[in-house]
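Hey, I'm writing a tutorial for new members on how sequence and structure tokens pair up, and I'd like a real worked example in the thread rather than a made-up one. If someone can provide the structure for the chain below, I'll link this post from the tutorial.
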Amino acid sequence: MNGAGHDVDVPQTVTRVLTAAVANGASDVHFDPTADAVLIRMRVDGLLQDVERLDLVAGRGAITRLMVLSRLLTYRLDVPQEGKFALAVDGAGLIDLRLSIMPTTHGLRAVIRLPAELRGKLSLDSLGLPARALAGLQQFAASDSGMLIVTGPAGAGKTTSIHALLLHIVQTWPGISVVALEDPVERDLPGVTQIEVSPFGQLTYERALRSILRQDPQVLMLGEIRDAATASLAVQAALSGHRLITTLHAATAASAITRLIEMGIEPYQITSALMAAMSQRLLRRLHAGTYQGRVAVAEWVEMDAALRKAVLANADADGLAKAYAGQVGYQTLRQSAGEMLRQGITDQTEVARVLGVDLKFAI
């Protein structure tokens, strides 16, 4: 659409765009201002796709409409703002949407996050994880204590995997007290007490974790370990008989362990608290010659005798990786991706895009 702003029904345009986003299984919708237009893009299967251009009048009108729906300050053009609103969408009913506004050199930029549950029913089996990682998650779910770290960059599916694990726990063992601390809460998890923290507000991860430990939790989900204080509390919780699941922005299991050490966690505490670490990435799945949906490749690492010895010896990331490379059934991310190539689940182009490697000689 490139017509003049006065020819555009702004409320109708906003509803139409969001309805299309739901129909396409998008996770986010962007309204990106440029010098002469506002570009609408949708993130589908992890990649942004250009879908429409609005002239500046219509585009800014659409962003203002979103701000009004979210009860944000439309006259403040110089500060970031965040809000929520509900919208009736054909085929999905009333859905809750999150809006983030950011000032740019070309005006306000708007990003809308759609509810994760719109993209299908969640379960451990639906993740498409390698057999070793799936079995490891099921083993962790059946344990009575210990710490699980899920690593990977932003957009690697860490939270989705953890949500699937939490649902598996509450559905398999009814009556267990499960509490999740999240920033933000992205999916409604029946049976899980979900608490939205604010890292820069009053209810930080550290403060919430300190308090929730007094409320008789058995399984704790911590959205992310970001600092030494939170890392220390998480390890203490795992050592005191809780199952604790968390994420770290680290490339591999080895680098996750070294990050904990850099945060001041003693090696002997890590070997006692950490049950396993999983590093994962998401690859688009092939379906009838096109991409549709995504599947996870994963590296699953357990705390065994060899890895425990390496951690206590203060080995670096390379030394740790060598220590767990001999675990039965262990696969690197590349080996996991190679298996998916052999099965025709994905292709070389997608593996190269996500992992930055060409596996044509490794399969």
